[in-house]
Amino acid sequence: MLDNRHFQRFEARSDFAPGRATGCDLLDATVQISPIESVKRHNIGWLGLVTESIYAPSGSRIEFRFDAPLHLLVMYEEGARREGETLIAGLVPSTLRNFGDKLTFVPAGHAYYERHEISTATRIIFIYLDPAKLQRSCDACGYVPRAFFEDSVLWETAAKLKSAVEGRQGGTLYSEALAAVLAHELPRSDREPGRTCSPVSRGGLTGWQMRAVTGYIEQHVSEQISLDTLAQLARLSQHHFCRAFKRSLGISPHQYLVQRRIERAKALLADRENSITHVALILGYSQASAFSLAFRKTTGRSPREFRRDFK
User: Fold this and answer.
1) pLDDT digits (tens, 9 = 90+) for 29-78
2) Whether the predicted pLDDT of 23 surpasses 50
3) What pTM does this model have?
4) 207-308 maps to which CATH number?
5) C-alpha span between 298 and 306 (Å, rounded)
6) What's the CA gap between 24 and 48, in Å, rounded?
7) Domain ranges of the chain
8) The domain 4-191 is classified under which CATH number: 3.90.400.10, 2.60.120.10, 3.40.50.2300, 1.20.1070.10?
9) pLDDT, the chain, mean
10) Residue 117 and residue 61 in contact, taking contact as beta carbons nearer than 8 Å
């Protein structure tokens, strides 16, 4: 276990750059990043909830630090490090290298520090949660720190909450409902350490089918992918594949492809040297207007509006 002595060597650092997100008075500072110029960060607050996207290119050397009266949920969308460590008060240090698709939870008041020498392009989501709001939803819930765990049920809820905040969609009741579900999922996930994937509903894709299809989409996200190709990967007819895919993910294969393109677009838009037209072409759109329309439909904002929020 760690105590404050493990974090004393970080307290004297003066080059950490805090981000500030509007919409949450408690967020005097988000996760502090050093050196700040090594990453692209985008934070947004809505209805008292705050999320932040971090993009770091391969070869970056970065440090994260956080110690605040807020819960912090970290979603590692993709990434790996050649070297580094993760320290959370109350846990044994971790030097895990491949952390893509992992989650880390830091309860309020627990010191958190990460050091990365990044080996691949990395995308990380920080979600800041007000303990008072979660307590209203789950008064008896107890929260403990966890590093690099998998839970697709929790991931899906957190991703929906992020999308609602980022797109300012769904209204107060929807976002509060998602936060309430998250309040219950966090301690439940801790009690069920073996729960790495959500149950497959009858008629849904199996684990290997899901990995084969989503992996192919990630590798060919900027291309026109035929339904027949995906169905063959899953060894199903097109009709049965579409039905199984929607049962498993709640959306059609085409909608999933568009969502993955938009996520890739966000990373590209973080670099202001990429024009919106160039990003559209990279992602397979023949016209920038078609890309902008798809981006707004998915996020509720235009690519230009999204880019303005980057620090």
Assistant:
1) 689 999 988 898 888 877 677 889 999 988 999 999 999 889 999 999 88
2) no
3) 0.63
4) 1.10.10.60
5) 12
6) 5
7) 4-191, 207-308
8) 2.60.120.10
9) 80
10) yes
